């Protein structure tokens, strides 16, 4: 209290007495207020900005430069102009990698959002006992290192693994196989591991959103005789639009950057059936010594991330 | 009433099904980590005992002891450095006005979505030219930069909401901007800071690509990299691999169980809005 009263007697104050003066104080007075010189702000951001620029911004620009060269990492680089970018659009392997990434987004982003909605919607209808337990367990895959996730899911798909065990139990043992070794099934198999990682995050986001929906809306819907399904489409889904946007953005960004899982489970194989841009960047730069091409894929990946995040946020804001 | 009872059972059935799905892949690892190597194999099986010696073997024969040492060193340094830098930067962005502050802040926000893959190539050649690959610097500096992007974004929200009248009162009392930050705002911002710390700890601990690229000799490997190499070399040694996987996951899982509300809050906030 005494502190505030001292504040009332401050320099910017005397000119304009009265209750509302504090809010109306012109902002140049703010800037020159003692202890807040304008330039000190730069000193505060300097350390963070320095590491950020040196270790993120400059490397990003450097990658753009690499992408214009042909370079094996050792001998002198050769100017390649737009060649690498032409290859990015025409090389079937590279195009395939981007197609795989988009297919994986169905598993990494769309499916977790749908499952998250299902879980949040069912939980919105009753008071769940043990809510903290369920939330803690369902979110757990999010915090595990991808190395651990990869070990777990390699085993799930192994010949003696859980999937084949379950198939055996329901009498479909003959369909059992090493799932990650099948060129047609390896990609969706990895996708499902990604779904497993992501759905808890979506659920938590949607549960927070559901809690902020006024109860009266549900009561009104019930008075109108709406069942669980209509209630979901009339009340829950529209109210959750911002959370759906956030969940989609987060899972898309995480999915496109996902290198670890591919590298540690299939290394892009069998054949090229599970290669994705994030994996191609590493593979080309550090295993094939095609640094220029690798950087081009990286730049392309960055562009795709930015475009998709922008599109998602535009879609959401456009409708509101 | 009947419909509400049906709602109830449908909800619990769905929840339990997904809880089982979330747990089964992890339970098989735990079970293999407790079994003898002759018995253990991928798949869900009840352990044939409580063979805790697997963890001892992973620690010594699998070198996980030394990997854990590297991981702790890197994670603690990154968390402390990124934490201090983020708090300072967010304080400026949240409470001061200076030309260019908006643009600079958006630069940090943009950093949240840049894929690591695109920056890791120049980082590798840069560190190689300075003879700094195979050192902890090659892990600490880039990860500090990545954590600073999130930390600044996260902490700015706290500083914006911190009471302006409190700051001004302290200033008129003669406190310097440095004193206001560390003696008034940081102590009362402990919840936000805790969240930042647990999130950056988890990211640093789990990081895989950077150590994979930067570290080629054994003694600087962090645990995720150690586990990946172990998987490559002894993929038939199922119970040892499982014990290693448990050792990688355990520190983060413990922190998660203690701070789960903060964890969840921080991870779902990654939403870049405004």
Layout of secondary structure:
The complex is a heterodimer of chains A (320) and B (274).
Chain A: H1 2-8, H2 21-24, H3 27-31, H4 40-66, E1 69-70, E2 78-79, H5 83-90, H6 92-125, H7 131-143, H8 146-156, H9 162-169, H10 186-211, H11 215-223, H12 228-239, H13 241-256, H14 260-265, H15 277-287, H16 291-319
Antiparallel strand pairs in A: 1-2
Helix pairs in contact in A: 4-16, 5-16, 6-10, 6-12, 6-13, 7-10, 10-13, 11-12, 13-16, 15-16
Chain B: H1 2-33, H2 53-60, H3 64-95, H4 101-111, H5 116-129, H6 137-161, H7 164-172, H8 177-188, H9 190-206, H10 209-214, H11 223-233, H12 238-258, H13 260-268
User: In CATH terms, what is the architecture of chain A?
Assistant: Orthogonal Bundle
| CATH architecture title of the largest domain in chain B | Orthogonal Bundle
Average pLDDT metric of chain B: 89
Tell me about the biggest sheet of chain A? 2 strands, antiparallel
* Largest interface: pair, residues per side: A-B, 108 and 105 residues
Strand content of chain B: under 5%
Shape of chain A: globular
| Oligomeric description of these chains | heterodimer
Number of distinct beta strands of chain A: 2
Structure write-up:
The complex is a heterodimer of chains A (320) and B (274). Chain A has 320 residues and is an all-alpha fold. Chain A has one domain (92-318): MetI-like fold (Orthogonal Bundle), CATH 1.10.3720.10. Chain A has 16 helices and two strands. Chain A has a two-stranded antiparallel ribbon. The longest helix of chain A has 34 residues, at 92-125. The two termini of chain A are 43 Å apart. Mean pLDDT of chain A is 85; it is low at 1-35. Chain B has 274 residues and is mainly α. Chain B folds into two domains: 1-50, no CATH class; 63-271, MetI-like fold (Orthogonal Bundle), CATH 1.10.3720. Helix content of chain B is 76%, strand content 0%. Chain B has helices spanning 2-33, 53-60, 64-95, 101-111, 116-129, 137-161, 164-172, 177-188, 190-206, 209-214, 223-233, 238-258, 260-268. In chain B, α2 crosses α12 (238-258), α3 runs antiparallel to α11 (223-233) and α9 crosses α13 (260-268). The longest helix of chain B is centred in the N-terminal third of the chain and has 32 residues, at 2-33. Classes of the chains: A mainly alpha (320), B mainly alpha (274). Chains A and B meet through α1, α3, α4, α6 and α7 of A and α1, α3, α4, α5 and α6 of B.
């Amino acid at each position: 209290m005494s502190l505030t009263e001292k504040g009332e007697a401050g320099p910017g104050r005397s000119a304009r007495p009265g209750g509302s003066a504090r809010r109306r104080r012109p902002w140049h007075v703010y800037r020159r207020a003692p202890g807040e010189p304008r330039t000190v702000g730069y000193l505060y951001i300097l350390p963070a900005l320095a590491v950020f620029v040196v270790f993120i911004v400059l490397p990003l620009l450097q990658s753009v430069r690499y992408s214009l060269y042909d370079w094996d990492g050792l001998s002198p680089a050769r100017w390649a102009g737009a060649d690498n970018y032409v290859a990015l659009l025409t090389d079937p392997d590279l195009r395939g990698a981007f197609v795989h990434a988009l297919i994986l987004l169905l598993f990494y982003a769309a499916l977790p959002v749908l499952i998250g909605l299902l879980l949040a919607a069912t939980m919105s209808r009753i008071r769940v006992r043990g809510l903290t337990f369920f939330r803690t367990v369902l979110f757990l895959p999010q915090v595990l290192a991808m190395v651990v996730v990869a070990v777990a899911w390699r085993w799930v798909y192994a010949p003696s693994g859980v999937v084949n065990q379950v198939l055996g139990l329901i009498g479909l043992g003959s369909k059992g196989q090493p799932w990650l070794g099948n060129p047609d099934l390896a990609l969706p198999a990895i996708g499902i591991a990604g779904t497993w990682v992501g759905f808890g995050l979506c659920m938590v986001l949607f549960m927070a959103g559901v809690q902020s929906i006024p109860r009266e809306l549900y009561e009104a819907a019930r008075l109108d005789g709406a069942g669980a399904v209509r209630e979901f489409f009339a009340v829950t889904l529209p109210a959750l639009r911002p959370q759906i946007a956030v969940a989609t953005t987060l899972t898309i960004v995480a999915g496109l950057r996902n290198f670890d899982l591919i590298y540690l489970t299939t290394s892009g194989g069998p054949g090229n059936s599970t290669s994705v841009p994030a994996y191609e960047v590493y593979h080309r730069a550090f295993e094939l010594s095609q640094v220029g091409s690798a950087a081009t894929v990286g730049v392309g990946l960055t562009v795709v991330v930015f475009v998709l995040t922008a599109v998602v946020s535009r879609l959401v804001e456009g409708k509101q | 009433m009947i419909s509400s009872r049906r709602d109830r059972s449908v909800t619990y059935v769905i929840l339990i099904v997904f809880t089982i799905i979330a747990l089964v892949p992890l339970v098989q690892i735990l079970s293999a980590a407790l079994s003898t190597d002759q018995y253990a194999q991928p798949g869900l099986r009840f352990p044939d005992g409580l063979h805790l010696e697997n963890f001892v073997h992973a620690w010594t024969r699998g070198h996980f002891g030394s990997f854990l040492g590297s991981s702790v060193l890197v994670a603690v340094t990154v968390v402390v450095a990124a934490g201090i830098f983020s708090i300072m930067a967010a304080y400026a962005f949240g409470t001061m006005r200076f030309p260019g502050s908006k643009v600079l802040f958006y630069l940090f926000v943009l950093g949240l979505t840049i894929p690591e893959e695109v920056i890791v190539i120049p980082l590798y050649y840069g560190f190689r030219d300075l003879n700094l690959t195979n050192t902890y610097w090659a892990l600490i500096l880039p990860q500090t930069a990545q954590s600073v992007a999130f930390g600044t974004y996260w902490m700015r929200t706290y500083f914006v909401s911190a009471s302006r009248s409190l700051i001004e009162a302290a200033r008129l009392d003669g406190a310097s901007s440095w004193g206001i930050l560390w003696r008034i705002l940081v102590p009362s911002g402990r919840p936000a800071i805790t969240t930042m710390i647990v999130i950056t700890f988890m990211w640093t601990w789990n990081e895989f690509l950077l150590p994979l690229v930067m570290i080629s000799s054994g003694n600087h490997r962090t645990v995720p990299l150690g586990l990946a190499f172990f998987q490559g070399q002894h993929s038939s040694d199922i119970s040892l691999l499982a014990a290693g996987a448990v050792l990688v996951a355990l520190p983060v899982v413990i922190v998660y169980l203690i701070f789960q509300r903060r964890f969840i809050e921080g991870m779902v906030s990654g939403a870049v809005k405004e």
